[in-house]
Amino acid sequence: MDTNFVSGTDRQLQIRQLLERQQRISVADICSTFDISEATARRDLETLANQGKLQRVHGGAIVIAQAPPEQPILQRQNEQAEDKIRIGQAAAALVQAGETVFLGSGTTVLEAARALRGRSDLTVITNSLPVVNALAGAGGITVICLGGMLRTSEFSFIGHITEQALTEVRADKVFIGTRAISLEHGLTHEYLPETMTDRAILKAGTEIIVLADHTKFGRAAAVLLAPLESIHTLVTDKQTPQDFLQAVQSRGLRVVLS
After folding, report:
1. What is the DSSP string of 79-91?
2. Most buried residue, 10, 21, 31, 125, by CB count within 10 Å?
3. Using the 8-state DSSP alphabet, how is residue 170 labeled?
4. Which residues have a Cβ under 8 Å from the Cβ of 137 and sit 6 or more positions away?
5. Quick one: which of 20, 30, 95, 105 has its CA closest to 64?
6. pLDDT confidence band for 23 (50 / 70 / 90)
7. What are the boundaries of each domain within the chain?
8. Which residues partner with 157 through β-bridges?
9. DSSP 3-state assignment of 133?
């Protein structure tokens, strides 16, 4: 490739084109291809990362994959089932006696609810019908269900009524799932109305804990839920890429591996 007199903007466009073909690119590759210094290559990657065009990893960059369309909860419950059970158990272990916790919707958070059965002296607030069902009759756990419009694909309550109810409650810990996570785009969802309710959920807790299996990382969906810096703890499985975990830890997030 003739790289003489290539401007920074043109070079960054060519880097993106190379990345789309290769799916991953290293600083060394960029230096060799464009005959530039490592410092210039890193600046190009940082510029593109800040624009949301790629995801920085140690030594280079990878493409940001688009999260596939989300299937209804009943179709997802068997996907990564063992990982989700372990994540749920690790999340439940973070709950202390006497706490009030919020459990959001989704299959991984549902496993945390199941792991809490048998605990005592807890209050659980939720907008998830499966969570209510999982904890119904569990002695020692007071369940508060927020009403609203039922989203039948998720069996979750969302919308104005739910968000109004959220202004009346407070939780020590909020446990919430997400459709996709990337370093540049943070937590993203597909469905705007549920995302708006989830944003209100995040405001209801002192500590925000995200539960996500390894398939959710390095991807982005259409709607921003929250930047990574707005959460405190990430609970995931051991298949999640180590460079991603190191990157989020460098931003001050606690990582719990199941």
Report:
1. TTHHHHHHHHHHH
2. 125
3. -
4. none
5. 20
6. confident
7. 8-63, 73-257
8. 150
9. helix
Question: Which stretch of 14-23, 46-55, 110-119 has the lowest confidence by average pLDDT?
Answer: 46-55
DSSP state of 37: -
What are 73-116's pLDDT values in tens digits? 666 666 789 999 999 999 999 999 999 999 999 999 999 999 99
Please count the residues of the chain. 258
Q: Which two tokens stand for residue 198?
A: 């989830």
* Amino acid letter for position 257: L
CATH number for the domain formed by residue range(s) 8-63: 1.10.10.10
What are the angstrom distances between the C-alpha of 115 and each of 86, 109, 171, 225?
A: 9, 10, 19, 26
Which tokens is 150 given?
């039922």
Tens-digit pLDDT profile for residues 148-207: 999 999 999 999 999 999 999 999 999 999 999 998 889 999 888 999 999 999 999 999
Task: Give tens-digit pLDDT for 129-164.
Answer: 999 999 998 989 999 999 999 999 999 999 999 999
Rounded Cα–Cα distance for residues 258 and 255 (Å) = 10
Say if residues 139 and 119 touch (Cβ distance below 8 Å): no
Rounded to whole angstroms, the Cα distance separating 225 from 36 reads 37
- Contact (Cβ atoms closer than 8 angstroms) between residue 173 and residue 180: no
- Give the architecture (CATH level 2) of 73-257: 3-Layer(aba) Sandwich (3.40)
C-alpha closest to that of 190 among 221, 144, 154? 221
Residue type, 196: M
